[in-house]
Amino acid sequence: MWETWMGPNGEELETVCIVTTTASRTLRPIHDRMPVIVPPEAFDLWLDASVVDALTAAALIAPAPDDLLEAHPVSTAV
Fold first, then answer.
1. How far, in Å, CA of 10 to CA of 28, rounded?
2. What are phi and psi of 50, to 5 degrees?
């Protein structure tokens, strides 16, 4: 989610929010939280508040399926 708004001094600010949830089993060894990944078939539900109620949208805030992501070791320089 993002928004552009006018700051107190008239400057235009772009802000962003990353919605997180508990980590999937795949990512849990790395961190206890992960970004919410809304599946493509639920984009309309997530983005259009006029067609979905808050409880239905909130149900999409869940860990990604365990087989969706892969974790690979990388250097600490990353």
1. 42
2. -75, -15
The helix/strand count (H/E) of the chain reads as: 2, 4
pTM for this model (two decimals): 0.75
* Distances from the Cα of 68 to the Cα of 8, 38, 39, 62, angstroms: 42, 12, 10, 13
Average pLDDT across each block of 10 residues of the chain; the chain has 78 residues. List them in order: 89 94 95 95 86 86 94 90
Other CB atoms closer than 10 Å to residue 45's CB: what's the count?
Answer: 17
Burial label, 38 (beta-carbon count in 10 A; 0-12, 13-18, 19+)? middle
